[in-house]
């Protein structure tokens, strides 16, 4: 393949990440509309985030194992079909319980798709540029926060929150066409098997990496899940300003994703420890200064940059820790990411419901990131002991 063909193929895979990013994050911007329309509490509204995240946690390893021996392009297309079907169910949901079920089913293909797409991109780009290729695949998720999520949030506010699910289904359909025409067929490694993938999981470095991903990302979700409430009730912004708030956070995530991929090609765990420390600092400042609009927005952007640095970094690290189980190891990044999503939403909701105020989730997030720094130090020690590149 030529460099242009490789670039187009990776971009085609990234469009799937864009669709996934819209559905994962737009639900947060539309949470107030859903809560008011269906007559449920803030805590119940947070379950829409948690249900999707739990779907990813369950689906990522199960569907990745199913795809271990399958041709990767065809399997990516199959996962997109499942994704579209779940969104149509969510659009038609007659009640909150069915909507929760639709969100769970929507999350099932998430991790397996990203794992498959990341492995395809890394193989096409080659070892020297694999971090950047993975960053491009993951960038669809971040770019969704800049363009797709604000746009869909506005549509949902104007015409009803259910239209989010139709828009996402259409985006996934366009992704299928792009991948079908632009991405090459790619066979799994010779000798790949479900049993082989499972055997390779007896690896301490892999599980430390998973723990690092869970802890590292949970802090971000502790504040992002309830961002619309903080922006309106603490910062004093209007509901009409929420798309701008989401846009600012998403811009930080886009920059952080690309810089994280570039830095990961130089030092994976070095990038992780710097990013984790930055998240801790910016979270504390966000909690202290959330009542000042300009500073709140600047700090939100900084949280987005530093947290997104961890995306391609941790994806690359997990693949490195289990070279004989690439499909499953790659999927664990997304299970971890969405375990963090669920934990952050729950922890944030618990602190709010306990009467600690809307600023409290930021301090919870800072504590999680500080713990992440300690776990990263341990991961570096394990890597040095194993003679692995840091």
From TrEMBL:
Top-rank lineage group of the source organism: Bacteria
Main location: membrane
One GO molecular-function entry: transmembrane transporter activity
Lipid bilayer topology: Multi-pass membrane protein
Record keyword Transmembrane helix present: yes
InterPro entries: MFS, MFS_dom, MFS_Efflux_Transporters, MFS_trans_sf
Gene Ontology CC terms: plasma membrane
Domain Major facilitator superfamily (MFS) profile: 9-384
Keywords: Cell membrane, Membrane, Transmembrane, Transmembrane helix
Segments traversing the membrane: 43-63, 75-94, 100-121, 133-155, 161-184, 205-227, 242-263, 275-308, 360-383
Compartments reported by the entry: Cell membrane
Pfam entry (one): MFS_1
Protein name listed in UniProt: MFS transporter
Organism: Nesterenkonia alkaliphila
């Amino acid at each position: 393949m030529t460099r242009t063909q490789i670039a187009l193929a990776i971009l085609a895979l990234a469009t799937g990440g864009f669709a996934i990013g819209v559905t994962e994050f737009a639900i947060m911007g539309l949470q107030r509309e859903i809560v008011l329309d269906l007559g449920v509490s803030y805590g119940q509204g947070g379950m829409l985030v948690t249900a999707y995240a739990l779907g990813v946690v369950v689906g990522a390893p199960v569907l990745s194992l199913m795809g271990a021996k399958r041709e990767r392009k065809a399997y990516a297309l199959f996962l997109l079909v499942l994704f579209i079907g779940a969104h149509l169910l969510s659009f038609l949901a007659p009640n909150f319980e069915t909507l929760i079920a639709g969100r769970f089913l929507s999350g099932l293909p998430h991790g397996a798709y990203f794992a498959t797409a990341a492995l395809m991109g890394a193989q096409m780009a080659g070892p020297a540029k694999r971090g950047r290729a993975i960053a491009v695949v993951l960038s669809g998720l971040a770019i969704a926060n800049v363009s797709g999520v604000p746009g869909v949030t506005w549509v949902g506010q104007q015409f009803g929150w259910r239209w989010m699910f139709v828009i996402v289904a259409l985006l996934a359909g366009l992704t299928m066409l792009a991948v079908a025409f632009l991405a090459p067929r790619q066979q799994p490694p010779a000798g790949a098997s479900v049993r082989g993938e499972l055997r390779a999981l007896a690896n301490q470095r892999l599980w430390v990496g998973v723990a690092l991903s869970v802890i590292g990302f949970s802090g971000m979700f502790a504040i992002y899940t309830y961002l619309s409430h903080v922006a309106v009730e603490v910062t004093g912004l209007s509901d009409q300003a929420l798309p701008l708030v989401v846009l600012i956070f998403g811009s930080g995530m886009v920059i952080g994703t690309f810089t994280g991929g570039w830095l990961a090609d130089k030092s994976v765990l070095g990038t992780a420890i710097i990013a984790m420390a930055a998240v801790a600092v910016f979270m504390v400042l966000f909690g202290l200064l959330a009542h000042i609009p300009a500073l709140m927005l600047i700090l939100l952007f900084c949280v987005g940059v530093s947290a997104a640095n961890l995306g391609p970094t941790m994806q690359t690290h997990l693949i490195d820790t289990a070279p004989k189980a690439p499909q499953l190891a790659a999927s664990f990044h997304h299970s971890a990411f969405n375990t963090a999503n669920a934990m952050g939403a729950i922890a944030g909701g618990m602190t709010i419901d306990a009467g600690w105020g809307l600023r409290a989730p930021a301090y919870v997030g800072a504590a999680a990131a500080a713990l992440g720094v300690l776990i990263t130090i341990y991961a570096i020690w394990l890597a040095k002991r194993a003679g692995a590149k840091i």
